[in-house]
């Protein structure tokens, strides 16, 4: 078992400029075998959260429990966790075998033969037997990261903690290692907390994503929940590429309920209005680029937009448009050529629009 519970985790750093709340009341229950990705912009508190779980930082408040046991005051080596870092942190003078064996020598009373056997078993499962006699400077970045992973796996921890483990690899290797890492995690079934700032990595690898901003947890949900039902404007803008488009609008209920700003009007369907009625009169409308539709000018809710640039990607085309003084993106199917400066009409299907409270940014629909 490796159930991990994080309760009210808060970490405040004090430096010359005052208090920095790096992690603010973070809570999560992570199931045995689950892979959770902590994601968010630089400085949002991902690494600090992970380091508190690992015991490398002392929380200001809060508790860390593994299988119901409070490990908050335990030393890192007594938490049954193994950490994998971005820079691999291999010992340069030890071989891959020595590196993989080292943690076991320090934390268990296994004999040399037993340790050798376990290292070889894991190396075979990972297909890195040939590397065991080599030192880190004889290994490529990808091979070093495999050894660093192997070192974590041989310890058979309850929990893996990974801090941007793939970020030093080139794009192609990163994609390959992502798949490898995922299948290893599933094979060994080890509960994993994985930190990245790369939302593609978060979307593709995780069972659930924890989106952080300014030390605060914004949403904890499956990748598709965070994508389709973002809890607020921040999550909506962070998850998805190219990013969701946003428009600030006011609700006009003089006639049929309509969202308006200085450049366009968008009449709401009854069921959409029913969702937002009474929640305020200023909204942010969000629409993902792939949900923007090109339509004839006389379509209901057609919005005129000036084409700025088109970027053909083969299967789809990114079209950068200007509506008033605001630029936004439409992802249109196929290979489309549109002249810069030309005016087209687009609309946002009602079932695809997201509406956020104009003041708080919380999702209202
Ligand atoms: P990145 O993606 O850039 O690594 P992160 O999301 O991992 O960022 P953290 O490294 O956890 O963010 O930092 C969160 C906040 O805490 C930042 O404002 C950072 O400057 C601050 N911080 C982190 N460690 C310390 C420290 N030892 N002393 C003071 N402030 C710190």
TrEMBL record:
Membrane topology annotation: Peripheral membrane protein
Q: Where in the cell is it found?
A: Cell membrane
Please name the SMART domains in this protein's record: AAA
The organism sits in which domain of life? Archaea
- Per UniProt, which keywords does this protein have? ATP-binding, Cell membrane, Membrane, Nucleotide-binding, Translocase, Transport
Nucleotide-binding as a keyword of this entry, yes or no, is yes
Q: Does the keyword Transmembrane apply?
A: no
One family name in Pfam for this protein: TOBE_2
The record's section on SUPFAM superfamilies has: MOP-like, P-loop containing nucleoside triphosphate hydrolases
The protein's annotated catalytic reaction(s) are: L-arabinose(out) + ATP + H2O = L-arabinose(in) + ADP + phosphate + H(+); D-xylose(out) + ATP + H2O = D-xylose(in) + ADP + phosphate + H(+)
Q: Where is the ABC transporter domain?
A: 4-239
Q: What is its EC number?
A: 7.5.2.13
GO MF annotations in UniProt: ABC-type transporter activity; ATP binding; ATP hydrolysis activity
**What is one term from the GO cellular component aspect held by the record?**
ATP-binding cassette (ABC) transporter complex, substrate-binding subunit-containing
> What does the entry give for GO biological process?
carbohydrate transport
Instruction: Kindly indicate where the leader peptide sits in this chain.
Output: none
Q: Could you tell me which InterPro entries the record lists for this protein?
A: AAA+_ATPase (IPR003593), ABC_transporter-like_ATP-bd (IPR003439), ABC_transporter-like_CS (IPR017871), ABC_transpr_MalK-like (IPR015855), ABC_transpr_MalK/UgpC-like (IPR047641), Mo/tungstate-bd_C_term_dom (IPR008995), NA-bd_OB-fold (IPR012340), P-loop_NTPase (IPR027417)
* Stated role: Part of the ABC transporter complex XacGHIJK involved in the uptake of xylose and arabinose. Responsible for energy coupling to the transport system.
What quaternary arrangement does the UniProt entry report? The complex is composed of two ATP-binding proteins (XacJ and XacK), two transmembrane proteins (XacH and XacI) and a solute-binding protein (XacG).
Matching entries from PANTHER family are given as: MALTODEXTRIN IMPORT ATP-BINDING PROTEIN MSMX, TREHALOSE IMPORT ATP-BINDING PROTEIN SUGC
The record's similarity note reads: Belongs to the ABC transporter superfamily. Carbohydrate uptake transporter-1 (CUT1) (TC 3.A.1.1) family.
- Protein name per UniProt: ABC-type D-xylose/L-arabinose transporter
